[in-house]
Design brief:
The protein is α+β, with helices and mostly antiparallel strands. It contains four helices and four strands, in the order H-E-H-E-E-H-H-E. A four-stranded antiparallel beta sheet has the order 2-3-1-4.
Length: 129
């Protein structure tokens, strides 16, 4: 039992540090109008190229692409052709900027963006509260 106690303390400390990083994180949202004819292509590129590349960068916490099902409450509703929301979570805006300036990002983001009908999409940068 004496051996397990330091391990537990270390695990708890790491979990608390990780929780603090997530609490201070930034979250970026992009509301995208994905071309319905290219939806499967976009999903394939997101899961096979973009996400694995993003996961390797310092500061990465999470990335998701979710399909809009319906507006349950509130207005204004997204434009009629907005069908996906992209969500990227990073430890800080500085680290996210390093990611988007990277050659890897410059290679993998167009795989997603090339399937968008309108490149004038809404981008929201938020602080995790």
């Amino acid at each position: 039992m004496g051996i397990a106690r330091p391990f537990v303390s270390t695990a708890i400390a790491k979990a608390q540090a990780s929780k603090e990083q997530v609490q201070k994180a930034i979250v970026l949202y992009c509301d995208l109008a994905i071309d319905p004819a290219r939806e499967q292509e976009m999903l394939h590129q997101f899961h096979s190229q973009f996400k694995p590349a993003a996961e390797k960068f310092e500061g990465y916490i999470d990335v998701k692409i979710v399909k809009l099902r319906k507006v349950v409450q509130g207005r204004p509703a997204p434009a009629a052709n907005i069908n996906y929301r992209f969500q990227l979570t990073y430890r800080s805006e500085e680290l996210r900027q390093r990611w988007i300036a990277s050659d890897v990002h410059k290679r993998v983001w167009p795989l997603i963006e090339n399937t968008v009908l309108n490149r004038d999409y809404l981008v929201l940068l938020t602080d995790n509260a």
